[in-house]
Amino acid sequence: MVGSDVWLSCIYPKGNSFDLNDLYVYWQISVPGKRNTNSVVTYYLSGNSSAGHGDNHYKGRARLSLDGMKQGNFSLHLHNVTPQDEQKFNCLVFRKSLELEKILEVTVTLNVAANYSMPVVSGPSQDEEFIFTCTSTDGYPRPNVYWINKTDNSLLDDTLQNSTVSLNARGLYNVVSVLRVGRSPTVDVGCCIENVLLHQNLTSGQTETFTGTKDSITEDPMDDTQDAVNPPVLSVLAVLVVAVAMAVATGWLCRSRCPSRSYAGAQAARPELELTGQFARREGDPWRNCRSTGSGELGAPLSLCPPFRTGATR
Known about the structure:
Protein name: ICOS ligand
Structural class: mainly beta
GO molecular function: signaling receptor binding
Family: Belongs to the immunoglobulin superfamily. BTN/MOG family.
Mean pLDDT: 75
Domain Ig-like: 1-107
Transmembrane segments: 233-254
């Protein structure tokens, strides 16, 4: 991965130990565009206390382990990998005591990759056709770009898109892809960036959905549903208002027709009328101990005494 460190393996298979004064070690790459021409990445020569560098591009980034070489491990440690490091590296080991006989040769192919940013889709423009733009940056190697119909996940025709892939200052790729589709009631598309080396497909996370007619496009399909719900809600509110009004009117009518009842508090005791003459109470009269209770019709007291006549007695 771009920016990481990597070890390019070159190990003597027999497990021998070596004297550093008896070794010549070279790591080199082929020069692009020049056949049979190599450029030295780093090297170690018999009698040196450290390795040297032949290509300035690898100065400070490529090194050999002196302790490892004593054990037959001639691997190259490459720091901060860049896209330009995607090369075939050759490891060559010679022994001085054997008249510079080559005892080991290994070729290592380094593949470099970088993750693309999540593609972002913008648009559409309000024109005679819908125009969507997809962008993704800082990836490696060169990607494949697809537009998909998210309704059924089918690929859209390549002729509908125009993609531009360019190298930036870091040696990584930036992508800009433009999709043009005819206006239709529903458009649901997504942009996909494929990194073949990483077996990675990145699809724009946001679904670009637009609904409406060819003359009127609405970005929110829920608006029509909300408008359809409003009339029933208003009808229910109207019924509730009428019911409340009827209840208030009924209560007012009842209060105007029904007599009001109030509590006047404790009443003073009525003094008993003292009867004289023939109406005086006599011992044994049945009404002597009679009493009145409650109130009768029109407020008259109710009597528990038997009736008597006021006329002459026979």
